[in-house]
């Protein structure tokens, strides 16, 4: 019997995927919240970025990513890519007989908790903004909300280049956020996995009175609640394993991934 098939359901890993390394900001929170759980992360580095691609292509990629994680015998899938989730979560739930969580719903729930004046900016990739998934979700959850959706296509490459505290990033943030200046938003939702890495610049630009929300922490809480509700929490007393796969250049993923994940990692190629 293979190692995987001999695992009991509770000791199977949580599967997390993203278009690349960004979803490690989500994995980091899941790992902090559930240290005893094993986690397998897949970053689709061969095909990143998803944010500029069509709906059909993004959906196809997400189905393939889910199949890869299913082959690893995971007990749950977390779509830790906002763009991917915007176009695939519903279909994945219909296709696969396994709990599928994503980063979108937790982000919306967190916004609803923190906004007071219901004037909310949504920052995300072009594809996520085009999908209207956040606009619809926030409007349903917060009746009367005034929304200011903004696509910020240069944020992902700036983060990928690790220009976290760089004048170029400050300039682009200033430029992109300029339309928000007179909108009196009290909450900014970071609807993209990469944006938490430049949160301090966004915060400075918006002012300290504005709440910046990212979905990673709330998503981790959802993962924990879902596993508890379905009696699938690991009963291991020691820490779970952490495995990382990338569809291209695992070495680059490893080097970059340490910044996103916050500790050293090893990464294998998903292509055998
Ligand atoms: N992971 C994507 C997201 O959260 C950003 C990177 C990409 O465009 O693929 O939207």
Care to describe what's here?
- The chain has 272 residues and is α/β, with parallel strands linked by helices.
- 45% of the residues lie in helices and 16% in strands.
- The chain has twelve helices and ten strands.
- The strands form two sheets. The protein has a six-stranded parallel sheet with strand order 4-3-1-2-9-10, sandwiched between helices.
- Helix 2 links the parallel strand 1 and strand 2.
- Helix 3 packs across helix 4 and helix 9 crosses helix 10.
- The longest helix has 17 residues.
- The chain is globular, with a radius of gyration of 18 Å.
- The two termini are 21 Å apart.
- Bound molecules: D-glutamic acid (DGL).
- D-glutamic acid binds next to helix 4.
Topology record:
Elements: H1 3-6, E1 14-18, H2 24-33, E2 39-43, H3 55-71, E3 76-79, H4 82-95, E4 100-102, H5 104-114, E5 119-124, H6 126-131, H7 133-141, E6 146-151, H8 155-160, H9 167-177, E7 187-190, H10 199-206, E8 211-214, H11 216-229, E9 242-246, H12 250-261, E10 268-269
Parallel strand pairs: 1-2, 1-3, 2-9, 3-4, 5-6, 5-7, 7-8, 9-10
Helix pairs in contact: 2-11, 3-4, 5-7, 5-11, 9-10
Bound molecules: D-glutamic acid.
Instruction: Give the ordered list of helices and strands.
Output: HEHEHEHEHEHHEHHEHEHEHE
Strand content: 15-25%
Strand order across the largest sheet: 4-3-1-2-9-10
Instruction: Note poorly predicted spans.
Output: 1-6
Query: Which percent range fits the helix content?
Result: 40-55%
- Largest sheet: number of strands, sense, barrel closure: 6 strands, parallel
Q: Can you tell me the overall shape?
A: globular
Cα gyration radius (Å): 18 Å
Number of strands: 10
First-residue to last-residue Cα separation: 21 Å
Oligomer: single chain
Taking all residues together, what is the mean pLDDT?
95
Q: Which structural category do the helix and sheet elements fall into? A: alpha/beta
Total helical elements: 12
Small molecules in complex: D-glutamic acid
């Amino acid at each position: 019997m293979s190692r995987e098939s001999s695992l009991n359901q509770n000791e199977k890993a949580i599967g997390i995927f993203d278009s690349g390394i960004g979803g490690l900001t989500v994995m980091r929170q899941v790992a902090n919240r559930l240290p005893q759980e094993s986690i397998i992360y897949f970053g689709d580095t061969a095909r990143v970025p998803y944010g500029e691609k069509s709906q059909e292509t993004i959906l196809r990629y997400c189905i393939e990513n889910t199949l890869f994680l299913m082959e690893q015998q995971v007990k749950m899938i977390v779509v830790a890519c906002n763009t991917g989730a915007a176009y695939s979560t519903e279909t994945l739930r219909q296709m696969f007989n396994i709990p599928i969580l994503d980063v979108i719903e937790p982000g919306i729930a967190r916004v609803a908790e923190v906004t007071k004046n219901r004037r909310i900016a949504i920052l995300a990739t072009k594809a996520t903004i085009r999908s209207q998934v956040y606009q619809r979700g926030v409007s349903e959850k917060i009746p009367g909300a005034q929304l200011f959706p903004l696509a910020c296509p240069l944020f992902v490459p700036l983060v990928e280049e690790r220009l976290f505290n760089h004048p170029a990033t400050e300039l682009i943030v200033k430029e992109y956020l300029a339309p928000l200046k007179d909108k009196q938003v009290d909450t900014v939702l970071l609807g993209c996995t990469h944006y938490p890495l430049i949160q301090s610049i966004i915060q400075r630009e918006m002012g300290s009175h504005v709440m910046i929300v990212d979905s990673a922490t709330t998503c981790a809480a959802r993962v924990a609640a879902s596993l508890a509700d379905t009696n699938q929490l690991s009963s291991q007393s020691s820490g779970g394993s952490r495995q990382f796969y990338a569809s291209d250049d695992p070495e680059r993923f490893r080097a970059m991934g340490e910044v996103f994940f916050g500790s050293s990692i090893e990464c294998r190629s998903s292509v055998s």
